[in-house]
Amino acid sequence: MIDSRDGRHLFSQSYDRDLNDVLKMQDEIAIALAQALQLEVEENIVSRPALRNSDAYTLYLQGLHASSRFDQEGLEQAVSDFERVIELDSSFAPAHLMLGNAYFLLGAYGFMPPAVAFERDRRANERALTLDPNLAFAHAQLGDIHRAYDWDWAAADKELKLALALAPADGDILFYAAVQSLGMGRLDEALKQVNAALAYDPLNPSRYQVLTLIQSSRGRLGEAETAARRALELTPMAPFGHYFLGSMLLFRGQTDVALTEFSQETIDSARLGGTAMAYFDMGRKTDSDLALAQMTKHPTDHPFFVARVYAFRDEPNEAVKWLDLAYAQKDSGMLPLIKGDSSFNKIRADPRYKAFLKKMNLPEG
Length: 365
Prior knowledge:
By secondary structure, the protein is mainly alpha-helical. It has 18 helices and no strands.
């Protein structure tokens, strides 16, 4: 390792290990680097168990790569890779963790029925915890299941607090905590957590998407737009990427540009919902109605997005009707984050909207 500022030699060391010891070797390198650079090493860093099968680790890396594509094909390939890893080495806890994560995304993006995806996610994380009860990331993912699918906010808080206690400097766990804080309306806390998560991984598009939602909820639409654009720069075809940016542009009064963004969205319900809102804002109600008609042909496809359009159009009867359907179907995509969604601004004073928040056990304020 060379200091790029002055060419000074900082660290060098050779490592000759069997591939089955690759995780232990990674820990050794990290600790040696920290010592060489005179950095504090977290007390909770512990040596990880050796892999029993080198082919399993290759498949594990392939699964990580596939899941980072954030599309249906990539996530399904990741599931296949991680399940194969577990067949080869069932004691390898990270494979159970990432299998759960892949199922979570399949459910959240609408690529798999939530009841199937989230229960498989839950089982994968519970299995990981039987292998190691102190796996912080497993506790964090269980907390996210409680948030996104169970809507058990107290249980989500409990798991996430435990995860943060075990690994307070883990960027992934800080990200999950930020999403939970956003859903509960704790916006200052959410902003602090997501910024900390981004400090650990400034190239993670999901964290910029959540930053978009946090800044929008805070009324900082300029900062929200900047975050949405950064997410798209990192992963141009990420699910909901164009939808989030289009929404920020729409809320800022740039309807023509917003419509262009919505048209590029890969998730059908989000693309149609965005265009329906944009057309309505442009005074093209007939076109908005047509987009809504396409959405309601398949009422099981993210009914929350239909509710969002009706709320934006200030039609509370239909908005509440579709919110109830989203509730009945456990629509996990965006429903748990409804509190800060600017699309519902026009109906926030409606008693039925307030009653819906109460049904979700969400605070009104």
